[in-house]
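To illustrate the input format used throughout this study, we show a single complete record. The first block contains the structure-token representation of the backbone; no residue identities are included at this stage. The design step must infer an amino acid for every position from geometry alone.
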């Protein structure tokens, strides 16, 4: 990593290689499939294309992922697995995520570092992946692509493990998952109509239409999709996809090919938290649901009260009402705070003598209810390429791509707790119609995000064959420009006073317009405890339904004395009624820009009669990042944080250099030795989130992530290349990666900012001080590494029998984490600043603190939370599964009474997640094992072919939870109870009918 101008030597090398160049980005990434090819192969297609329609069974022939050039897998050193179209069809995959459930050493799931206790990051964002325990990237046609993908227009998937920035720029240290879209086939006309039905309200239909318009010159391919589905055993979960993909191929001249693709997608989905509710009511229930106007104490499960004067709640039961719960008693099960454990199958039967006797908590309840979590996405993708051949061995590819995703999402504000209402009256003294009932409560947030990516790329390749001991060489040069944009507008549903003058700007109950006391609380009382769909948070009329994402505005009348600014106007009668309404208040705004200009040279050389294949490459990326500082400035006219501060933007320019080299030595035609080394560098995924800066500063650009990996292995190509085996040992490091950390004992970042808001609301600091000193950080950095070994076997054992098997073992460690917090906390705007207000009592205590907590308690909370996270450094990374194994096979009968019947199945195994426990040491929690099956039958009719296929995932309906953490504190009975876990996806049945014309 260095800064400054591009080195002269690299410019010279790139310019010369672009003139002389020859095919092969092969330098890098690749292998675990198989197919035997003639070493003297002459490419009839562009070396920058792989035709997935030539893949046979589970064994792909070639790959681009090894070097971005059409190369046989046997000669590429980097570990790579190819998932063919037939494999994806056999396992019944509808999405990239389902495909990768069978991948080696990859976990598409939440872990210790995947979101907060409420799982907002896991439900608000598209699927993310970890390979070898480290974050990985996605690509589409070898352009970076970070959004969810459906299989309807994907021909194949190449999964490269380990860093590979020499080819793809900002690929992470974990690896890269590339999907190749379907292109027109100029040799045939065909139409395939798929219709899939199943449980979980599944209906899916797709069309694949290929038409040759001019023989060998012009073709078009259309892929259409409509999909609707839910999730078994979980109400309220839903997804709908409408996607359209068109691809055109034109060959105006023998050596010229032009491709163009366009895709539009309209996606709406509502996932939910992958675990059950948290317990804040069991002690109160067992005590007989006592009603009281006082706080009886922990023996009856009554801990503190709703702090402040702004706990106004919209109740969605019946006709809906707004009630004042300010200062009223609340339930909990411990004095430590409200964040108590989630219910599991072991503790979900509650004693309820004053209710149903025994209350069963449905662990599979979808707590978000009708609130859309990920919301809607409008997806627009376009690509165009021109491939030109010069002479016999020189090829030029010019490529352009534009990806745009406009995403709107709702999410709950924090975790979801089962609570009880012990208050016989409301805050105004009126009777409480829901006294003694259980409820769920949340607040509502929403985001509008716009992502844009524009690419231009030119690649020139050339091949030289010396016909002697100097060998054969494939060389390539590439230049690429990538321009990215990111816009975000985040809002909270809050109470506002529509009649207030500028003197009253901010919120009615605290000055910060989006502050906790101004936020609208949404509550749903449990009326039907045996109905799993009733176990949910409340909903606001209109929100999350149809196209009215704003919902209906709520209104209520409060006395003037309830408003935060009433003391400034003693002449106003405190009983004067004031109307307040609900509205969306902006609390974060972003408008980021980044540019990456890349140059690359790479090559692949064959020596010793093609027994030794050496790959190598060098890449340089010039990064430019423009990030307006912070999360926006407060508008003085309305108190909202909606002004983008471009004048004080964070701007950074730097240069990253990456390299890759490796070798394959073919001991025999079947056995080969492999070595590979590669690095990565790039801009953080969260470049829009500023980390802590130096002491006294608000923040700075995230550090540049980087990584390095080495692989040593042996491979075998058997059965005339139809079956491929590979075993490899690896060691990978990853430095300065950023993520929404899973905090161990609270969130120190939100604690700091909430404490600043508290001081402003208490009138102890000014708004200007708050805005200039609060941190803009939302993420934390982590460095670490992984090491282990992998084994893969994949291929076509016979013309009727396909099989794949893989196994991996991985140790992941943390070498450093969240170190940026300490210098900031010890600076002038951190701990020393807060200490001068140590004795002040907070209005709305931060984190897990209870009523009456002081600023000193807040300081201790922040320090403890930060130190708990930092204490992970030097140990095993929590959340990782060390062992993973997958097997899948399918056999087709070719004759007899079972002719054209196929049957198969597979198993997916993963060892338990790791937890580093302060008392119990390193724990490995429960493992998981799921079985899948497939049965299919094909019948050819005169004018079409009918194919029927039944897929059952999780055949035996395994429902054991996957434990993330157990408590770090020992319970009174001596046990350490489950604190956090992930629910498995229940049995999923799909029946597909495919009509091929």
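Output of the design step:
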């Amino acid at each position: 990593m260095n800064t400054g101008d591009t080195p002269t030597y690299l410019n010279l090398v790139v310019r010369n290689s672009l003139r002389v160049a020859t095919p092969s980005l092969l330098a890098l990434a690749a292998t675990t499939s198989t197919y035997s090819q003639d070493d003297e192969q002459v490419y009839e297609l562009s070396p920058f294309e792989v035709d997935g329609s030539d893949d046979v069974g589970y064994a792909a022939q070639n790959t681009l992922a090894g070097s971005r050039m059409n190369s046989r897998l046997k000669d590429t050193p980097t570990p790579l697995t190819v998932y063919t179209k037939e494999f994806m069809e056999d396992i019944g995959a509808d999405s990239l995520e389902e495909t990768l459930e069978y991948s080696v050493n990859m976990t598409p799931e939440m872990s210790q570092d995947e979101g907060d206790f409420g799982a907002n990051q896991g439900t608000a964002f598209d699927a993310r992946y970890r390979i070898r325990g480290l974050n990985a990237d996605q690509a589409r046609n070898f352009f970076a692509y970070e959004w969810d993908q459906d299989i309807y227009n994907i021909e194949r998937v190449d999964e490269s493990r380990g860093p590979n920035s020499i080819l793809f720029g900002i690929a992470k240290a974990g690896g890269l998952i590339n999907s190749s879209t379907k292109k027109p086939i100029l040799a045939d006309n065909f139409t395939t109509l798929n219709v899939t039905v199943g449980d979980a309200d599944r209906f899916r239909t797709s069309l694949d239409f290929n038409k040759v318009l001019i023989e060998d010159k012009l073709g078009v391919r259309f892929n259409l999709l409509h999909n609707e589905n839910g999730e078994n055993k979980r109400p309220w979960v839903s997804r709908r996809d409408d996607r359209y993909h068109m691809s055109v191929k034109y060959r105006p001249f023998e050596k010229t090919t032009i491709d163009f693709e366009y895709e539009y997608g309209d996606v709406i989905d509502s996932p939910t938290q992958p675990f059950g509710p948290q317990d804040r009511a069991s002690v109160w229930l067992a005590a007989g649901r006592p009603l009281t106007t006082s706080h009886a104490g922990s023996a009856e499960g009554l801990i503190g009260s709703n702090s402040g004067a702004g706990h106004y709640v919209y109740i969605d039961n019946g006709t809906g009402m707004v009630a004042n719960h300010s200062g009223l008693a609340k339930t909990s099960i411990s004095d430590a705070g409200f964040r108590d454990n989630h219910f599991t199958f072991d503790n979900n039967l509650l004693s309820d003598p004053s209710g149903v006797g025994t209350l069963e908590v449905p662990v599979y309840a979808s707590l978000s209810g009708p609130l859309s979590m990920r919301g809607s996405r409008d997806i627009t993708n376009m690509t165009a390429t021109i491939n030109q051949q010069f002479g016999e061995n020189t090829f030029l590819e010019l490529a352009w791509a534009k990806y745009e995703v406009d995403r709107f999402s709702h999410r709950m504000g924090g975790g979801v707790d089962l609570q009880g209402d012990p208050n016989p009256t409301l805050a105004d003294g009126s009777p409480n119609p829901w006294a003694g009932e259980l409820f769920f409560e949340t607040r509502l947030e929403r985001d509008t995000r716009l992502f844009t990516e524009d690419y231009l790329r030119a690649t020139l390749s050339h091949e030289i064959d010396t016909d002697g001991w100097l060998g054969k060489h494939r060389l390539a040069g590439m230049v690429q420009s990538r321009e990215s944009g990111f816009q975000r507008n985040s809002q909270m549903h809050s109470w506002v006073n529509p009649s207030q003058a500028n003197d009253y700007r901010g919120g009615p109950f605290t000055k910060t317009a989006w502050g906790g006391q101004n936020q609208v609380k949404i509550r749903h009382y449990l009326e039907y405890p045996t109905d799993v769909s009733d176990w949910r948070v409340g909903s606001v009329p209109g929100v999350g339904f149809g196209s009215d994402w704003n919902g209906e505005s709520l209104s209520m009348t409060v006395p003037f004395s309830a408003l935060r600014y009433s003391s400034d106007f003693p002449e106003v009668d405190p009983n004067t009624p004031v109307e307040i309404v609900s509205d969306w208040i902006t609390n974060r705004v972003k408008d980021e820009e980044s540019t990456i200009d890349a140059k690359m040279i790479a090559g692949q050389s064959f020596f010793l009669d093609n027994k030794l294949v050496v790959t190598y490459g060098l890449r340089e990326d010039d990064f430019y990042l423009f990030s307006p500082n912070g999360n926006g400035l407060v508008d003085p006219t309305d108190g909202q944080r909606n002004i983008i501060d471009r004048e004080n933007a964070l701007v950074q320019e730097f240069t990253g250099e990456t390299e890759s080299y490796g070798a394959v030595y073919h001991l025999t035609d079947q056995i080969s030795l492999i070595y590979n080394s590669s690095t990565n560098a790039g801009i953080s995924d969260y470049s829009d989130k500023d980390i802590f800066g130096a002491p006294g500063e608000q923040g700075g650009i995230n550090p540049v992530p980087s990584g390095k990996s080495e692989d040593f292995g042996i491979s075998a190509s058997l059965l005339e290349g139809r079956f491929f085996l590979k075993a490899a040992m690896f060691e990978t490091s990853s430095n300065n990666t950023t993520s929404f950390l899973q905090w161990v004992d609270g969130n120190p970042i939100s604690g700091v900012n909430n404490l600043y808001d508290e001081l402003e609301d208490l009138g102890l600091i000014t708004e200007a001080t708050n805005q200039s000193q609060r941190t803009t950080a939302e993420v934390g950095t982590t460095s670490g590494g992984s090491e282990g070994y992998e084994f893969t076997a994949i291929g076509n054992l016979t013309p009727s029998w396909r099989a794949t098997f893989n196994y991996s073992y991985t140790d992941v460690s943390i070498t450093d984490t969240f170190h940026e917090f300490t210098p900031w906390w010890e600076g002038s705007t951190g701990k020393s600043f807060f200490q001068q207000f140590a004795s002040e009592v907070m209005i709305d205590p931060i984190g897990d603190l209870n009523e009456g907590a002081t600023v000193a308690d807040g300081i201790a909370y922040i320090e403890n939370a930060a130190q708990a996270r930092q204490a992970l450094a030097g140990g095993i990374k929590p959340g990782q599964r060390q062992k993973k194994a997958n097997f899948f096979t399918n056999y087709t009968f070719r004759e007899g009474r079972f002719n054209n019947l196929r049957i198969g199945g597979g198993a997916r195994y993963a060892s338990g997640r790791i937890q580093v426990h302060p008392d119990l040491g390193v724990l490995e929690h429960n493992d998981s094992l799921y079985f899948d099956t497939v049965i299919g039958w094909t019948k050819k009719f005169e004018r079409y072919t009918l194919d029927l296929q039944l897929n059952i995932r999780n055949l035996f309906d395994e429902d054991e939870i996957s434990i993330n953490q157990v408590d770090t504190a020992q319970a009174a009975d001596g046990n350490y109870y489950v604190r956090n876990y992930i629910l498995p996806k229940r049995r999923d049945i799909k029946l597909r009918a495919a009509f091929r014309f």
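Structural context for interpreting the output: DSSP finds eleven helices and 50 strands in the chain. The longest strand covers residues 577-607.
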